[in-house]
């Protein structure tokens, strides 16, 4: 019935980007595992909200998305898909080289599979 309270559905959320977790050849999803096993629930909620914001508002800039060079971003975008390659806790503004190297290796693996 028109006008009946609570009968209207909220508008569907439109995502400009899909989102997937990087998967190893063995089928593991290291970022998903890191989030579930090492990140407190409140931080996971914040990370999830940030991912959703990027999906809905892409292209978006700092502070959520920043280039790390070599086609690597805080969130890596592959066509219309955001690929979560690596997760890490930053304790300074600079991303550790080991974290960058691991993300680059995973990005290369993903690109070789195409």
Q: What can you tell me about this protein's structure?
A:
There is one protein chain. With 114 residues, the protein is an alpha+beta fold. Helix content is 37%, strand content 14%. The chain contains three helices and five strands. The longest helix is centred in the middle third of the chain and has 17 residues, at 41-57. The chain is globular, with a radius of gyration of 17 Å. The termini are far apart.
Care to give the gist of this entry?
The protein is an alpha+beta fold.
Overview features:
about 110 residues, two-stranded antiparallel ribbon, three-stranded mixed β-sheet, alpha+beta, 3 helices
Strand content: 5-15%
Oligomer designation = single chain
How many distinct beta strands?
5
User: Over the alpha carbons, how many angstroms does the gyration radius reach?
Assistant: 17 Å
Low-confidence stretches: none
Q: Which structural class should the secondary elements be placed in?
A: alpha+beta
Indicate the percent of residues in helices. 25-40%
- What is the N-to-C order of secondary-structure elements (H for helix, E for strand)? EHHEEEEH
Question: For the largest beta sheet, what order do the strands appear in spatially?
Answer: 1-5-4
Provide the domain count.
Answer: 1
Gross morphology: globular
- Arithmetic mean pLDDT: 85
Distance between the termini: 50 Å
Number of helices: 3
Main pleated-sheet profile: 3 strands, mixed
């Amino acid at each position: 019935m028109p006008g009946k309270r609570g009968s209207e559905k909220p508008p569907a959320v439109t995502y400009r980007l899909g989102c997937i977790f990087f998967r190893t050849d063995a089928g593991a999803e290291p970022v998903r595992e890191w989030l579930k096993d090492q990140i407190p629930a409140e931080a996971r909620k914040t990370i999830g909200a940030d991912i959703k914001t990027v999906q809905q508002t892409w292209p978006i800039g700092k502070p959520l998305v920043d280039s790390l060079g070599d086609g690597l971003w805080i969130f890596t975008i592959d066509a219309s898909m955001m690929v979560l390659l690596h997760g890490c806790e930053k304790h300074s503004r600079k991303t550790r080289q080991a974290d960058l190297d691991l993300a680059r290796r995973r990005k290369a693996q993903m690109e070789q599979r195409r």
